[in-house]
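stage 2 :: seqdesign
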């Protein structure tokens, strides 16, 4: 299956800048989409493919830094800022918020293309991680409430006998639940399961606190 062509979004109110960047981006082998305002860009649905945003700081409606805040949850779309009059505080703010690069006009084509290539690598990595998390969450959803309890106790380091005591069930039943958890989560080892649990936010059980989202407390009836 061919890989989708990455998209480079450009948001700049200067038509000459948009046209020149559009040509440069297409020549480099990427898709280009240009917008003259932040609001026009925000109306566009999320891409779902490797992408990055080349963003002017000064825009007629929402400025670039405000737009960066609005799309802070889009880790799969890194931002490259461009500006004609940047200053150090502005640069620091943008970089602290996760921008890949902050370029002052005029800048060379190769400088921008290098930044774009780096941003698209980040985008691919973020999309891969999101896909992996989606698979893990689907596997977790396939667990019964009791299996979630057992999983939380297993990754806490408890032995089958201790888990049986916590949940007031037999050790044989614990082993059966544990086996189903390993199969459903497709964990090849306990270490694999612990790593999965960490990514899913299933932490160790301590002080009778919550085990995991959707799981019953130890001692609750089956």
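stage 2 :: out
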């Amino acid at each position: 299956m061919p890989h989708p062509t990455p998209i480079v979004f450009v948001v700049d109110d200067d038509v000459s800048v948009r046209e020149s960047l559009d040509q440069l981006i297409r020549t480099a082998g990427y898709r280009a989409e240009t917008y003259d305002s932040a609001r026009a860009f925000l109306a566009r649905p999320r891409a779902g493919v490797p992408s990055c945003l080349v963003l002017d700081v000064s825009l007629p409606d929402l400025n670039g830094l405000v737009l960066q805040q609005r799309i802070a949850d889009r880790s799969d779309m890194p931002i490259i800022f461009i500006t004609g009059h940047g200053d150090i505080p502005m640069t620091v703010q943008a970089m602290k918020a996760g921008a890949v690069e902050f370029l002052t006009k005029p800048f060379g084509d190769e400088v921008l293309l290098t930044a774009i290539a780096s941003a698209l690598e980040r985008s691919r990595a973020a999309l891969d991680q999101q896909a992996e998390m989606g698979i893990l969450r689907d596997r977790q959803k396939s667990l019964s409430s009791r299996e979630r309890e057992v999983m939380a106790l297993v990754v806490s380091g408890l032995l089958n006998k201790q888990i049986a005591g916590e949940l007031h069930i037999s050790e044989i039943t614990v082993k059966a639940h544990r086996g189903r958890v390993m199969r459903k989560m497709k964990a090849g080892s306990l270490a694999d399961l612990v790593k999965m649990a960490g990514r899913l936010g299933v932490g160790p059980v301590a002080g009778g606190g919550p085990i995991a989202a959707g799981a019953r407390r130890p001692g609750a009836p089956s």
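stage 3 :: structure notes
- Residues 109-141 form the longest helix (33 residues).
- The longest strand covers residues 51-56.
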